Amino acid sequence: SQVSGNISFLGADFNSIVKQGQVIARLDPSLLQAQLEQSKANVLKSQADVTQSEANLARARVVLLDAQQKYGRAKEIDAKGLGPKADLDAAKIAVDSAQSSVQSAEAALTASRASVAQSQANFNQAQVNLDHTIITSPVDGIVTQRSVDVGQTVAASMQAPTLFIIAVDL
After folding, report:
1. Which of 44, 83, 158, 163 stands the most exposed, by the fewest C-beta atoms within 10 Å?
2. pTM tops 0.90
3. Pick from 5, 18, 10: which is nearest to 148 by CA?
């Protein structure tokens, strides 16, 4: 077994003839199924965060465009000597601030996309773990030893526990 859990089904016993790929045991999948659902929800949340980050970036770009237009008008007015210098300075600060907001929104979008990739990897791992709750015979043969019973807890830690010993059918 590559994952831990309680044995919920045994499909083979001592002296049973088994075929390669035959289900010989199942672990209770409920905990791993819950982890899969949680990681699926995390993927969806991460994808929503990307959408939100894209909207924030678009808003920051609009603010930047507006600030650039106001700065352009302020420069024209200043060139004609019709407006106070403070208005030109304020417009320049608004452009710089908007550019900073765009860069910040781009960074947030990159982080959101990375979060989607990480969430997807966690989902894939949870799916693999769930798939490992079904234990199949690796070979055609005869079960020479069964080391577990229904309801028994299997603890897979540093080393995968041996549930069955199967002699290859010669």
Report:
1. 158
2. no
3. 10
Tokens, residue 118? 């990480």
Minimal CA–CA distance to 40: which of 108, 110, 111, 121? 121
Contact (Cβ atoms closer than 8 angstroms) between residue 136 and residue 108: no
The tokens for 159 are 């080393």
User: Which two tokens mark 1?
Assistant: 């077994």
Beta bridge partners of 23: 136
The kind and range of the H/E element at 23 are strand 23-27
Please say whether the beta carbons of 48 and 166 come within 8 A: no
- CA distances in angstroms from 91 to 77, 104, 164, listed in the order given: 12, 20, 76
SS3 assignment, position 32: helix
- List, for residues 40-93, the tens digit of each pLDDT value: 999 999 999 999 999 999 999 999 999 999 999 999 888 888 878 888 899 999
Strands 23-27 and 5-10: antiparallel
What is the total residue count of the chain? 170
